[in-house]
Design brief:
The chain has five helices and nine strands, in the order βββαβαβααββαββ. The protein is an alpha/beta fold. Strand 1 and strand 2 form a beta hairpin.
């Protein structure tokens, strides 16, 4: 099962799921079931299909226009080890990785174990969009986020400084004094 990932679907070229042209993998299964979720078909853990991670990597590598890969859901951290395995097979000099999660960054750090793979996926992610979608806070003014409570976290900077460092998409800079 190490090379299999349960997904809801794939979008081969997206400009709404992160900066630049991105390949988006929608994982299957989500415990959050946020009211007003954009992807409710990804909630059911029994739904979706298993795909070979190596096939996804080959598909990504065929497209010279891609800037990055976005992992969405569902909840990617429910399959953290498999998602981290997928990312480990990518040329990280060529692709940046953005991961969406309904969990908060601090929760993932506090609850990371070898078994659940949370840390492996965090270490594989460049930008983490964290927090549940809150329908009452929905805003098109929050770049690449569904609601204003969600944060764009620069994971490498956050792990290096032991602070939660936010990434500002508009100014293209990291803010670590939060």
């Amino acid at each position: 099962m190490k090379d299999l990932l349960k997904i809801s679907g794939i979008v081969k070229e997206s400009i709404v799921d992160g900066p630049g042209i991105r390949y988006v993998v929608f994982t299957q299964g989500c415990p959050h079931k946020c009211k007003g979720c954009h992807n409710p078909q990804t909630h059911d853990f029994e739904g979706g299909k298993y795909v070979d991670i190596n096939d996804i990597v080959k598909d990504i590598e065929k497209d010279p226009l891609l800037k990055g890969v976005t992992i969405s859901g569902g909840e990617p951290f429910m399959q953290a080890g498999q998602v981290a395995n997928l990312i480990s097979k990518l040329d990280r000099n060529r692709y940046d990785v953005m991961t969406y999660t309904g969990f908060e960054y601090e929760y993932l750090l506090e609850n990371a174990t070898e078994e659940n793979g949370y840390m492996k996926l965090l270490e594989s992610t460049d930008i983490l969009i964290d927090g549940k979608f809150v329908e009452e806070l929905k805003s098109i003014a929050a770049p690449f986020r569904g609601s204003t409570n969600q944060r764009a976290i620069d994971v490498p900077h956050s792990l290096a400084t032991n602070k939660t460092c936010l990434y500002d998409f508009e100014k293209r800079r990291v803010l670590c004094n939060v």
